[in-house]
Each structure stands twice: as C-alpha cells, then as structure tokens.
Amino acid sequence: MLALVQRVREARVEVAGRVTGAVGPGLLVFVCVVPADGEREAARLVDRLLELRIFADAAGKMNRSLQDMGGGLLIVPQFTLAADTAGGNRPSFSAAAPPAQGRALYERVLQFARARHTPVAAGEFGADMQVHLINDGPVTIPLEVR
To answer: Are the beta carbons of 49 and 29 closer than 8 angstroms?
Structure first.
C-alpha cells in the first residue's frame, strides 16, 4: 500500500460541491492500493498512520503521534500514487490495483481507522475530488507498507 501523508492545520474533500470529509489539525493521507495488498497491509497502514511521530512536543521536536495529539485523520483514495513515468511523459497506472480491489481495501482502511481513532473523515472512491488543505510545516512524508 502506498500513502502520502501530510500534516495539516485543516483539510477537506469536496465532490460536486459537497463536502465528503473534513478535519482540523491532523493528517491528510492519500492512499493507493497495489495488487499485492490485502487486509494485513490495510491494518498495518492504519497502525503506521496513528503511531507516526510527526507532531511537535513541548520542546518543538517531532515526537508526538496523531493519537498523542488527538488530531483528525482524512483518508483520500488516490490511485495516481502508483504512477510510472519511466516510459515517457504520459504516466502509466498499471501498478495500481484494479478498482474493485482498490475500493474494498480503501474501505477496510477506513474501517480499521474508525475502530481505533476519532475523528476519521474520507474522500470518495472513484469520484472527481477537490482537496483543500493547509499544510502544516510543511510536513509531507511518503509511506509504503508491504
């Protein structure tokens, strides 16, 4: 599973002018499922997201996790994280999981996250989404769970 994690002051996702998910301070996470992924990777991704220490402690060091600070988690499906540009200027997305697998595992990521943390908000699988965010830091971290 591929993820791009952004520490945010706030973020929201809109589909056709309707907000599907929004959070205040916390994490915005773009998630891409690849064919080798399963339930284990979905659960491990949630563990990593909740435990990733990228929030400042009292001394200003990145030493606190999302769970420590009680922030929001906005999870957005994004198959384009699997883009392969080695063949030229037009990316190939053949490394991403097929839509049915991607949707099912994205939903499992949401279920695992909601069982362990609150608030959890979401984008909409397969939709044309507009993502609005205020990146905090900025802190942007690629994450791969295999």
So the answer is: yes
Q: Judge contact between 62 and 22, C-beta under 8 A.
A: no
Single pTM value for the model: 0.95
78 is catalytic: yes
Question: Which tens digits make up the pLDDT trace of 17-69?
Answer: 999 999 999 999 999 999 999 999 999 999 999 999 999 999 999 999 999 99
Which tokens is 33 given?
């499922």
Of the listed 6, 30, 55, 78, which one is catalytic? 78
Q: Look up tokens 């994004």; give the residue.
A: 78
Question: Is 106:60 a contact under the CB 8 Å cutoff?
Answer: no
Q: Is 130 a catalytic residue?
A: no
Determine which one of 20, 79, 85, 140 is catalytic. 79
Catalytic residue among 67, 80, 93, 112: 80
Domains annotated for the chain, with CATH where assigned, are: 2-88+102-140 (3.50.80.10)
Find the radius of gyration of the CA atoms of the chain: 15
